[in-house]
Design brief:
Length: 248
């Protein structure tokens, strides 16, 4: 069915593009089952890790659905969600940061006008969880997402909450790359802690303007830190951008 994929450059991207073409061309239609992981490995001549990465990208794009114990099936054609799958390149991760900057700034602005003491307590607990995760050797990605989600939840706007949650989940790879970069240098890590605290303080003080400014500054500085990363980091970033366990 498929020809072997060779070459050292971004195999998962090439496999994902090949499978996407099969679906969008109609050669694979809604309800069809993809070849098994073992079959794809044999047909394409790539590793199981590459296949898993490629299928994960198709799943995040809303093209396929893994079904426990049955395989991976093509979904009916529909309006495709935004392509926010991080591919480990600087350009794509920066694009995700730009989207987050607009969303997070408005969420922080609204939170400052609506957050209750209980909401603020949840935000503070989320920041403490980031520190604990990093101290335990993790990158704090999930905890970082929880902090920003707690801000959205405090707005009382379910549409905003759903949007921030969706944005966080589909751009998890980009956030992981950002966190990994920040963990490489103490000054980056401390800067992030300070920026998060500034957002929390503004919300706690009900200062909507300061909250929006702090959130925008946090995202702007995240982009600056990424641009300062050395080439060796970006060689590793492609691997970091993929959440192999997602949907497993």
């Amino acid at each position: 069915m498929f020809n072997k994929v060779d070459g050292p450059v971004r195999l998962a991207d090439r496999v994902a593009a090949m499978l996407t073409e099969e679906i969008e061309s109609g050669r694979l239609t809604a309800g069809d089952k993809l070849p098994t992981e073992v079959e794809l490995v044999k047909q394409l001549g790539v590793s199981r890790t590459v296949i898993r990465e490629a299928v994960s990208r198709l799943r995040n794009a809303g093209l396929v659905e893994p079904r426990q114990g049955r395989g991976v099936f093509v979904l009916p054609r529909r309006t495709r969600p935004l392509d926010l799958e991080a591919d480990g390149t600087l350009a794509k991760v920066l694009q995700i940061v730009e989207v987050r900057r607009a969303m997070e700034a408005e969420a922080a602005h609204l939170a400052a006008t609506r957050a209750t003491p209980a909401d603020v307590a949840r935000m503070r607990a989320a920041l403490e969880a980031i520190d604990e995760a990093v101290a335990a050797g993790g990158d704090g990605t999930d905890e970082d997402l929880a902090f920003h989600r707690s801000i959205a939840e405090s707005t009382g706007n379910p549409v905003l909450v759903s949007t921030v949650r969706y944005l966080g989940e589909v751009s998890r790879g980009g956030i992981r790359v950002t966190r990994a970069n920040e963990a490489r240098r103490d000054d980056f890590f401390e800067a992030v802690r300070s920026e998060h605290q500034a957002i929390l303080t503004a919300i706690e003080n009900s200062d909507a303007k300061a909250a929006r400014t702090a959130a925008r500054r946090h995202m702007k500085q995240a982009a600056t830190r990424l641009q300062k990363a050395d080439p060796e980091f970006w060689d590793e970033a492609e691997r970091l951008a993929v959440d192999l366990d997602a949907g497993a």
